[in-house]
Amino acid sequence: MTEIAFAPDVFTWPSDEPRLIGGRCPSCAAVTFPLKPSCPRCGTPELDRHLLARRGTLWTWTTQDFLPKEPYASGETFETFRPYGVGLVQLGDEVRVEARLTESDPAVLQFGMEVELAIVPFRVDDDGTKVMTYAFQPVRAEGVQ
Ligand SMILES: [Zn+2]
What we know:
- By secondary structure, the protein is mainly beta.
- The protein has strands at 3-5, 21-24, 31-32, 48-51, 55-64, 84-91, 95-101, 114-124, 130-138.
- The strands form 2 sheets. It has a 5-stranded mixed beta barrel. A 3-stranded antiparallel β-sheet has the order 3-2-4, with no helix packed on it.
- A hairpin with a 3-residue loop joins β6 (84-91) and β7 (95-101).
- It starts with a strand and ends in a 7-residue tail after the last strand.
- It binds zinc ion (ZN).
């Protein structure tokens, strides 16, 4: 089965250790995600390509309990939609990234918990192609299943 990324240049993939691709300003060192055409802080054009940390902490989160409006394009219908978590993840001291979470159970999600980047299926096209997107998953404590 073919797997493709939902958009180019958003994350490194295929990879055992995927990273989000952000931008770093050569003038003021501001870090952005995604990579932007110019620095949002000082206006410098052409940011450097900068790979973000794989792990971060969950700054805040919510759950998406209903099917988002177009152009969400997951291929889900109101009948098949499954709620998912959405989080704001602090990556190092560089940047906060809004992303899907692999977990949507409020009993599991905790403010400040450690999360790690994962590449997950977003939808399956009619020809069987799996379209992949990025999400953050809780980091399990060592030795705990
Ligand atoms: Zn700048």
